[in-house]
Predict the 3D structure of the following.
Amino acid sequence: MTGIGTGLRKPEVKLKWDPSSWTEPARHLDIVAATYTQDTPHDTPANVVHTESRSPDGTITMLRHSETGLGLGFVEIMQLDLDRMHPSYGRIVVGVVIHQAAGRRIFGDITHAGVVIVDGYTELLADDFAQVADATAATVAEFVRDRDGQWQLHERVQGFDSDPTSFPYEMGKNTDA
């Protein structure tokens, strides 16, 4: 797997999707980030950030959150301040999960869904979830600190059959990255 954009500083993960029609329950997607320490990069996450939360040290923050997809463009945005991330953290996995309160929904049910990761004006990654159409949650990328302490982004689109409660604890377990 190759790294994209070494020396990343303050990337943003942006999510969009079309709202449901007025005859069906709202479609609710969330960006989720899980941080892992250098010592345990595939274990239980040290921190999980989602919805309208932030990491305890303020380095991962939700800037915008939507429970319906209503709005123009990207309706949910998470910012990762990698420059301020404590040196003990070596890996961050970022994903998207669909809430299942209104019955089982998969990415194939969500129209015009898309995620992009940008650092400043540079687009680092873009995906439309087509390759994980049967999944209820998906990782999209991981940020890994290299030997020099610089952060690299690796595309990691992988589908899961999961819900918002269990997904944050499953998303970083895959060690084939």
Remarks:
- The CA atoms of residues 22 and 68 lie 11 Å apart.
- The chain has a mean pLDDT of 91.
